[in-house]
Amino acid sequence: MSIQFKKETFRNDYTFRNSQWAIDRFPFPFHEDSYMYSVNMEQHQGGPKGSVFEKRFDVDEHYLSEMEDRAIVLAEDPLRCQSLPHMTLAGWDLLELIMVSKSEDYPDLFELHREGNNWRWVNKPMNIDDQFVFMDETTLPYGPMEYITRQTQGDFAVLDQRDDNLWMDAGMVTTQADWSLDFDIGMNFFEWHAPVPKAHEMGIFVRALKFLLNIQQGSPARRLNWTMTVNPLLDTSPENYHKWGVEKSTLAKENVGEKQHLRVELQTFFRLPRSNALVFPIRCYLIKLEELVTVPKWGRRFHRVIRDLPEELATYKGFINNRPMIVEYLSAFDDGQPTSDGIWPD
Amino acid sequence: MSRFQFPKSIISRPLYGVLKPRQGKFHLMIADAEGAEALFDVALADPEIMAKSHIMYFPKNTGQSYIGKLEELGAAQLYIGPSYEASVSRLRKILNDAKVGLQIYLTGTESLIGQGMQEVAAAGIPHTEVQTEHRGSVARRMQCVHCKGITEDVIYDPFVCSHCGLNLFVRDHYSRRHAAFQGVCVDAENPGDIPDPVELYS
Predict the structure, then answer these.
(1) Tens-place pLDDT, residues B101-143
(2) Which residue is catalytic, options A223, A271, A300, A304?
(3) What are phi and psi of B30, to 5 degrees?
(4) CB within 8 Å: A200 and B11
(5) Residue A245 and residue B146: Cβ atoms within 8 Å?
(6) What is the span of the domain harbouring residue B180?
(7) Is the domain of B30 the same as that of B105?
(8) Could you say which of A216, A255, A257, B185 would form a disulfide bridge with A290 (CB–CB 3.0 to 4.6 Å)?
(9) Structural domains counted in chain B
(10) Are B177 and A245 inside 8 Å of each other by CB?
(11) Which of B176, B184, B189 has its CB closest to that of A249?
């Protein structure tokens, strides 16, 4: 099918909704009735047809509205997109990876024409048709990373690899689960994950880093992560927390199904060819509880996961105060029946 | 006693050691306030080192307390500055002119150590090769994550951002690049609900 791009907002009047198509393909992140940290990596080599795992960079009905939201964030705060001076080559690598992938995976939407270093990029949904010289920054309106990530859903952390570690040395971060690129840029893998509770002691980051350092070109990996967000707000940034934090207090029994969203990150990892950097796209999918519980298995399971989540994790994920209300809402959709293994609907 | 044992914290929070005289042709020692005491200990351990040392010292709130004794160390160069900020162009010149074999010592408040480290890193010297020792106040240099302004010498949690006026709580998350801890709005979810300020580590 060709994608029907929606005109919607992720702020103020919050008109964001998922169509039935988007609900059916939502990346529900729980493969069993409970949750604890795990490295949970798998190869990112496609997936079931129509699923968010099928393409290297998933494009969905929210594409144009997400790109508009990103432009608003960047106009207010240019520090959301930064690249340390040694990361420009990785930016070109990323631009190439995305242009090649999207033009191959969505030939009806994107075209890439290359003659030597003279490239023409056509992004039909965004009405972009640009010619530029590959590796010549003066021929693009932005740096290469910023140029292409203004046209690609999801946040992007570009990680330099040196000293057996990964360094957050560039990124485009406007749809983040409450972390600051401007503060964390330049940190290594353990430092930028420092505030995460429990996982360090469990050895999660040591194992994850070991896995990531060994990712090879052409063999990308992926995992899902999740948190909870009140209202379909993409920009849950620390920078703007003093503005959106209060929205958490607006949750009430009457509106919890409408306002409370499960926020899922499809995290993928690609080795970049020239720079040997690792790019870490973090794609955010939102779904309100009302939409989520239309899939009976997800309603049952989500109730159990949220109800039994350790307090420390509910605090870290920022919904400890609202948990009782959320659990009460979800309990109406849990008839106690067993659930099948895996994330897919029955 | 000017030493303080910081409790175990998250990985991004810096750790400090104890200064030891190292072998080297040149020694750059940067200190503020009670950091002078750590320099005295270095001099005691190796009196020879001072003839090859450049000391940059900022008394902060210690006034004249340490000046006389610093002068007696016999450093090749002793600079007493009114503030760290005022010295930055001087420090950059020294680091740019630095020869191989320069040993660097940073001691005093976390703010001084962190900002000195920023300049050292900018000059291309790995932070792992620099010795540090915390002495004196446990006040912090805080960056407001909202307006990005820096508030120096924060000793109470929460505190008021000196730039945007928001009430911020003090996190242990630390950025070497900003040489600052992160301050985050404390009453974002319940505006006006601001806990009573508590002195750090009290």
Answers:
(1) 899 999 999 999 999 999 999 999 887 789 999 999 999 999 9
(2) A223
(3) -115, 125
(4) yes
(5) no
(6) 140-199
(7) yes
(8) A257
(9) 2
(10) no
(11) B189
